[in-house]
Design a protein that fits this description.
Length: 249
């Protein structure tokens, strides 16, 4: 496994509160494959196994919400073969992991613009959401064809249309109203964001929702992310003091 560098000193013995909502930018699949002289598809397949490990580990630890940035709206610009492989991986995961997720009490949700996906993928997503709707152990929120700026623009249009139709007063459009028009309506904001792969940016992910999220950037590539990395991240989070803009000193 690649050496994991964290900001500050971290050990695996951290105790304290867990994040209610953990968000992850799963980065580094292609670099992982390139370092091993493998095609990008091999990195994405290895990354899918990391998804399975992480979902199970989060459920076991009592994390209530897990949001994974699986496919951004910008990812359509990647090579056609790579996009096709990602679509096939999505089909494989939805087809073969659904019952395992259901048996483990995981509820599956998708956020993002669905219209661009093929009909069979849309059917699989709808079936997964319906099959797991009553599960309460862990909400697995998968961001697909998602971009935060597009999400905010969509929410603004929706509120503007309602105001133009006389359904709401313009003066009533506040932070709560905008949040209710987002894909994540009804979900708590993320407490902790983990990004793997060595990059230090959030790449148009949950811009509104992460106003007070704690960030942790890891050098490990997503395919190598495992329980030890999760434990280190949770230990680091437990030691942080969250003030939400209020100086508690």
């Amino acid at each position: 496994m690649a050496h994991n560098k964290l900001i500050g000193t971290v050990d695996a013995q951290g105790t304290g509160r867990l994040p209610t909502h953990l968000a992850i930018i799963m980065d580094g699949n292609r670099r992982w494959a390139k370092a091993r002289h493998l095609p990008a598809a091999a990195g994405h397949r290895a990354g899918a196994k990391a998804v399975q490990r992480t979902v199970e580990a989060c459920a076991d630890r009592g994390i209530r919400y897990l949001t994974l940035y699986a496919f951004s709206s910008e990812n359509w610009g990647r090579p056609r073969d790579e996009v096709g492989e990602l679509m096939n991986l999505m089909r494989h995961y939805l087809r073969n992991e659904l019952e395992r997720l259901h048996e483990n009490g995981v509820r599956v949700r998708m956020i993002g613009e669905r219209e661009r996906f093929d009909p069979d993928i849309l059917d699989m997503i709808a079936r997964a959401e319906e099959r797991t709707r009553g599960n309460l152990r862990l909400d697995l929120v998968v961001a697909l064809n998602y971009g935060a700026r597009a999400e905010l623009a969509r929410a603004a249009r929706q509120l503007a249309q309602r105001a133009a139709a006389g359904l709401i007063d313009v003066a009533a459009i506040n932070e709560d109203a905008l949040a209710s028009a987002l894909h994540t309506s009804g979900l708590p904001d993320p407490d902790l964001l983990i990004r793997t792969g060595g990059e230090r940016r959030i790449s148009n992910f949950l811009l509104w929702q992460m106003a007070y999220t704690e960030f942790l950037f890891l050098d490990v590539g997503w395919p190598d992310f495992g329980e030890k990395d999760l434990e280190l991240a949770l230990a680091d989070y437990a030691r942080r003091e969250r003030r939400y803009g209020v100086d508690a000193r």
